[in-house]
Amino acid sequence: MFKSTKEAMQFLDGLKPYLKSRIIGQDHVIDAISEKLRYWYLGISNPNRPTVFFFLGPTGTGKTEIIRETIHYLYGDEEEKLLRLDMSEFGETAGADVGKKLVGYTEKEPGRLYDFLEKNTEGAILYDEFEKAHKDMAKYMLQQIDAGRVTLWNNRTYDISRFLLFFTSNVGAEIFQGNTHLSMARKTEAACQRLVMMFNSPEFVARFGKFGYGIFAFNSLKPEHLRLITRKFIDDKLQYFRTLRETQQDRPGFFLPENMNVLGYSPEVVDFALLQTNTTKNGAREIRDIVERMLNQAYDLALIRDPSGKNMTGYLNIAPVMENEIPREAVVLQHEIPVNCIRIISD
User: Please, what are the domains in the chain?
Assistant: First the structure.
């Protein structure tokens, strides 16, 4: 709780810059959702309905990440306050009674919402990749959106009017990635029409309102965005390495790993990661995996070269290493400062 209105307003003012520091290439979405979240937080939106968002766009453009970062900013712990439901679990193979998987059958099979709603009176529910859901799921969503409540297996009705409901979909990804002659509004309209046809429920899509206020379209990422995202992933991973030993202190394992204190890295490290991507169409998700593997290998190589772990401070650069007596290039920890070094600013 805030001590004053001024303190609360300052907190809300920080949401937009925080999201822009974490999500790259989607400033137009951040501007729009920050306004809507502000009204929700102040309690001046419709008090009887949850606040809803539908995120459209190609895979790897930040749809799920922006939700995680939003909940992290608002609540501090997205694990407790965010329920993510993979809608492929509620697909056509689940059968016509698919809604029961959501609201539950019995105490032994209470459904996916039960534990979360028992513990929380506010928070966020993410229906991820909604296009994979059974068409009957739309009517269950209508109840939640219209009534602001949901009745579960125990015949108890839960108030979800203070919840944020997020929906994401990759439907029409090729529309967003191509058709440069079309405006974003036209592309979004075409994607929404596909959703209407898939769920045979125009009223479901209509509940989200207009493009830019309830329905948000994410841009395809450009090469310059991918470069910035790569640097962000590298910086995040290196920050993790700086406190690795402390992070693992209370976790079961074979031994406590040494911290690796990277002071900076060469631009070639960024290039090395980007060269391993297949296409910009896979977005940030592929880059995250590449950076994770690349820097884990760098950490492993540093320990192999110095098992004592006493020389784990330095700079990352590209250098040849031997693998099965065959030289290959890899990211390695060195003591020399690289040319045009990208310095790490620690928290």
Answer: 5-217 (3.40.50.300), 223-343 (no CATH)
